[in-house]
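Possible regression after last week's pipeline update?

I re-ran a chain I had predicted before the update to compare outputs. Posting the input and the new output here so someone can diff against the archived version. Not blocking, just want to make sure nothing changed silently.
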Amino acid sequence: MQELCDATLIAGGKRFPCNRALLASVSPYFQAVFTSGFKESRDGEVLLKDMDPSVLQNLLTYLYSGELAFGSGSAEDLFIVASRLQLTPALPLISRYLMERISPENCVRLYTLGHDHNHPILLHGALRYLGLHFDLLFEHKDFLHLDLGALICILSSDHLAVTSEMEVFQAAQRWVRAEPTARLPVLKMLLRCIRFPLLTQVEVAQLQAEAEMLDQQLELQWQNLDGAGRLQVSGGLRQGMYQEKIICIKVPRLRDILSVSEDMDCYMECLNPATGSRTKLPPLELVALPGCSVLEHRLYISGGKHPDGSYSRALHEYNSLADRWIQLPAMSTPRSVHMFLTCKQKLFALSGWNDAGPLASAESFDVAQKVWSPIASLPIILRFSASAPYKNKLYLIGGDADSDEVVYKGILIYDTHLDTWTQVPLEFSLHGAAAVPMEAGICVIGGFFSRKVTQLYANRRFSQLLPCTSKCFFMREAGIISTEVTVPPLPLPLAFAGATSLRGKIYVIGGVCTSRTHDAIYHWGPGEAAWTQYPENLTGQGTIVRRVLKCVTLKVAEPKLSTLMQDTSASPVAVGLADPKLSLEKNKKDHHPHSPDLAPLGSLSGGKL
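New output (post-update):
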């Protein structure tokens, strides 16, 4: 209604009557304009220079009607204007539309938009896409027009799908060659993005040769490093330098959980779903029902029950880059049947069982400091909960509550910052389910399920207490079950299945179907209507696996990098540009990795000058 229009926006010679209260309520920009005391605030007229009136009309229509028209080629203009005017309701809708249509042709532009307008969703989404398609994109003409800040952010990213740091150097070199006079002075800054400890000796020589083609001589600093040292100094592997594979840890049958049997074993198999290949991990002492967790390229096994019936305190780490196990400081308390989770560079051993009976205690292990510390005990002793980390909290969903002799109808949430536990009620009992953290929450899969409180009896098996279910559900932060995200039911009821995520999909492996063990592998991704069965069974031979599984996703380095990680020879850890007056022969002498003239290096951060 015209009488409610008390402001006018002017763009391209066209006038747009508006309500200043509405504009101020959705835009910090207009709130400042109309409360500033300047001319625009007094007379209500705001001149918007260099703005397409059709784009402004589209955005104003959205503010009044909720309808936004996306025509061909207009979405980027809409984003620019909405960002300039700080129209907060429109930006998420526009950025989502742009990310759904990202391609090799526009991803550099979208990254630049996100970077220039400081928009995290567009910036991070485009950066991930750039990383996955880096081999194609650094050849694109738009790559040469990136500004220095955006280029450094891209070349520093962990998400680049490159197999060698040489690809990162060559991208930087191509950008410099496009405008050598202006850009050669910043080459030194770009070299800080290169993770030199991840280069082989052959690649180092190639890099030096290519630098000389730019009339630059590299001055390298060297240090003897093992695999762990290379990772620490460089800052870690890029996304393209490793594959993600599923590690299956096979553990005893349910009827052997509280007794010792000759059938007790625990062995680990590495499965690559993309190729179907299977490899065994190096052997480790056999224990039953250990804790299992993973942190990037490291797999951790804690506690368990020995064949002689005793309980273990041990913590072992498998490093996929070195392909070997090492023993770390032991837990303060022997544990088996415990929850074992990773969150923010710490491992958490929660509850469990040992000779003294069920445990309420919990402890955490600092991976960097290699020290165990006690944490707050659980308010309820639980076993066989679906457990998962999400953000800064640990979630234990359902389970066997020994202290009350009932199946627990609730969720325990541990805040890793506050060292406190919170209980959230559930409307049902759940026991032996699997839980997998995802970007927006936690997917809970299968288990024994009932809406009634079920008493436990010592002479009855778990499968007789509750019906096995195929139900799955999605849980958001604070234990809120989502009604917006629908996870389809499994093809059949399953409990005690192994579950993990890989490349955006959830894999469910093995488990118990009612009272029988199961051998199939299923996967599902958000947006898919049903679970898909993997072509092969767990054993690969179609035989029944009389085991329950735990599964994690482990980063495994590509063969070349794996070999490099086991090399302890000298490696470049920092680089500078040599004084052009020095001869090439002198540089070779002074900076050879075994030069007796080279003084020992102090601590250096990855790739920093």
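Follow-up from reviewer: compared with the archived run. Residues 165-178 form the longest helix (14 residues). Marking as no regression found.
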